[in-house]
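Input record (one chain):
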Amino acid sequence: MNPAHDSHFGKIRDGVASYLKDADPDETQEWMDSLDGLLSDAGPDRARYLMLRMLERASAQRVSLPPLLSTDYVNTIPTSMEPEFPGDEAMEKRYRRWMRWNSAIMVHRAQRPGIGVGGHISTYASAAALYEVGFNHFFRGKDHPGGGDHIFFQGHASPGMYARAFLEGRLSEEDMDGFRQEKSKPEHGMPSYPHPHDMPEFWEFPTVSMGLGPMDAIYQARFNKYLGDRGIKDTSQQHVWAFLGDGEMDEPEARGLIQQAAVNNLDNLTFVVNCNLQRLDGPVRGNTKIIQELESFFRGAGWNVIKVIWAREWDRLLEKDQDGHLVDVMNTTTDGDYQTFKGKDGAYVREFFFNRDPETAKLVEDMTDEEIFALRRGGHDYRKIYAAYQRAMETKDQPTVILAHTIKGYGLGHNFEGRNATHQMKKLTLDDLKRFRDKQEIPISDEVLEANPKTPPYYNPGPDSPEIQYMLERRKALGGPLPERRVEYTPLSIPDADIMTPVLKGSGKQKVATTMALVRTLKELMEDPEIQKRLVPIIPDEARTFGMDSWFPTLKIY
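The corresponding structure, as predicted from the sequence alone:
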């Protein structure tokens, strides 16, 4: 090995190669010489591409490698590796638009005179496709033969779940008009955030305040593994999904337990982070890139990371980008700029994005400004989302996080999409309503909207329409409606009181700490086989300090 090789060898892959035994130095030298030849003949860009493809193939073949913490700002799954989309995309798009309309109108109507209870319009608008791919093709309901999935819905997106339930016939117009009015409409009031307290048969999990959803999802996935491993319930077909916001991921609680998911190999868990780049007060990251930051964070913690950045309209441009100029522009554009582009128009995007490099300017020279502005982000593309979800379900031994690039307020019109204030915007003007209606192709006339702009109508074509029939059939095939909470259960048999006789005698003259008393009480309960297998010891450390090691022969260590 020559000195040039030797001086850099210890830095490869953060130094990992420096202490691994070289079983065949001659073969190693051949590979190094091949890389040198590739660099000399084809240049660093081609070498980088081939190295990344080799890493991709190694990962697919389950070769253990330290993670590459940050990749280019492009989709993780190449177009050539996307599976066929199995549904009727046009059909699903039609009723997804109805849901966008109904969810926004529900919040808008909740601002009518005498009510004014607030709510969120733009979050669900940005995440509608992320949810609908799941509802139509992945989320298993309670009647699925393998058991239902556990879905932790993002709190601010709850209007979209209500809008779907309205189309399904599970909620009425009166229910929709009871949004955030649990006290004044006790029979029809619906909470703004998911919580089973006021809707015990609808919401399964509370997910707000921030950080509660991701933590609970991790523990639910871990508990599902425990149930299967202990033979209590077959959970092998049940998956845990947590829908989160990129701003939400700044909460310490939201990131604080992710190592537990990797350490416990929770391949039954998927986080879907809706990266619309905005929070309540403005950009999540203005001068950097939140998706790249989260990619490094989750890869470093041992997660499988799938980025869904660009929609199918970009595929042709990326294919033409032989020398990586477009990828370089994508890599060096900040989140603040991406948000600005969406608030402008196609001419602005051409000038300040594509024209930053003469080669990328050539890529779009045959496109109109309107076509440039219509280039979507990946979180709004059914095919890209479906490919990501399918890859997540196929991943073994690792939890998966999907980072989806979206537009906050997507589909609501130019006054809402990507605006800094869109998180707080709860009302639509008459002009906004008309533009929104036109964009979503809702069959409601100007006269109807003009009659009372404060209470525009919901839209539901009825249960006999082909779209609603299709939607209901998809849910039936997947095991029934969601969200749904079932409260029936088989109670455990209470053991005979005699089992506690040793504890009831007390400790005599010996003083016993409360911790030791608890340990002794539980140790007696473990004599009952039904109670025993349902005890889940989660002990970070110091079990022996408190005498809990006496449980190990009975409970084992999980």
